[in-house]
């Protein structure tokens, strides 16, 4: 009799933690494990702003999935674009664009999230995100290119537009991105003697009335003070009304000459979730505390893609889409899968929030570990210590620590790699949000898979 087939979709924090625990705790031959992911690495997403600013190299935050001594998972290079829970078939688009089907007995949906966008004219065509490794590398090249082009230009209007940068989103990603990239351009301007440093202007805007409200008023104000001390203009209660190639229009009526719009205004669950036709909570799959999808045999979901009940808070709360929850859910998910295989009871996911860390670059940070409010160097030590300890392999830890030390001693470099230098890239180019199937298309692929089987 063939062993049960476990299919894990997504190699983020949740998916990788689940797979690694399964590899450690399942006996050889007890189950077959397959992982669907476009890339055979786990991306340490919280450090992407430091990749964009050049403090860290891209490979230092891309942790190989094949370095584990216990590695026995079959990696399918592609992305899941549809799931038929009745037929127990997942439709996958491989990186070659070939569409294949994969049958399963148990499926773990850890498909993560994509950048949340709105119906704003020009947004999808002119904004860049900060959700993938390629986006971070592209944004770095783009920002440095604006300095190079402004330095070469004889047109004052062009110079002004190239040296204004807008980041939308006052959460962790947006705040850290604005802070880290502003520090990069401030350090770089010394190498551009023809440019007036006063022309470089960074803008951070958010529709919310407060910056990172999860931090509380005191730390939120401390972060705001750091940004304003660096001459980052922070506008709250404001968003984007329209985006164009050379200007951005704010909802308060301001029109800003600008060729760099970075969009980090939240995330939404992967479009894969909509292909299941199941109940959702704010776009995330509604699951039980054991992370099972009600009414679907052998289907589990966790991480950013699922609305896992937060039993520690109660009152109908769901766990926020953070790395710390995803990692811990992954471990419980693996234990529940093993329990299912062995006909044992499943356990609920219960976890108390460990706190928040926000690295603003250099010596600046704000942190709230276990409710203790910190800012400045102590907060920076906590923030970097947390990120460093969360990296999965010693190789990744060594690379990150080496990059931090090298940056502290030698400073920033301002080299462009030429990544997509001749073709402007959009949000769709990096996140492939238009690649998913309709229910009818999924049924067609399911039917063909059934015939072949």
UniProtKB/TrEMBL annotation:
Residues 5-330 form the FAD/NAD(P)-binding domain. Keywords: FAD, Flavoprotein, NAD, Oxidoreductase. The keyword Oxidoreductase applies. The keyword Flavoprotein applies. Belongs to the NADH dehydrogenase family. This is NAD(P)/FAD-dependent oxidoreductase.
